[in-house]
Amino acid sequence: MSCRSRSILMAMIGIVLGVAVSEAIQAQTKPPIYVVTEINVKNPQAFGKEYAPKAQASIKAAGGHPLARGGSGGAGALRNAMSHRS
């Protein structure tokens, strides 16, 4: 194998390894995603029975978890619980 052929082969191997390492590094870093929603519930019974369980299951299936919830027992309850910690 000539010197030129060897150099070309080594350059190609370097490019392939560089791409593979670059892809592996990028695959490890996933930035967090935050979703903020505001809804106006007109039928609380239907919301609690039909929508909320499906939405929560969908969020959990995607690896998510709520940081705060509004409504009764939601964000207001979190604030109250934090004020009693001191």
Descriptive account of the structure:
Helix content is 62%, strand content 0%. The protein is mostly helical.
Set down the secondary structure blueprint:
Layout: H1 3-28, H2 44-61, H3 75-83
What characteristics describe this protein?
86 residues, mainly alpha, 2 domains, 62% helix, rod-shaped
Number of helices: 3
Query: How many domains comprise the coordinates?
Result: 2
Unreliable residue stretches? 76-82
In terms of DSSP E residues, the strand content is under 5%
**What's the helical proportion of residues?**
55-70%
Q: Which class do the helix and strand fractions yield? A: mainly alpha
Q: Specify the oligomeric state.
A: single chain
Q: What Rg, in angstroms, do the CA atoms define?
A: 26 Å
Mean pLDDT: 76
3D shape: rod-shaped
Main sheet overview: none
By DSSP, the count of extended strands is 0
Secondary-structure element order, as H and E? HHH
What is the CA-CA span between the terminal residues? 76 Å
Short summary of the structure?
The protein has about 90 residues and is mainly α. It contains three helices and no strands. The chain has helices at about 5-30, 45-60, 75-85.
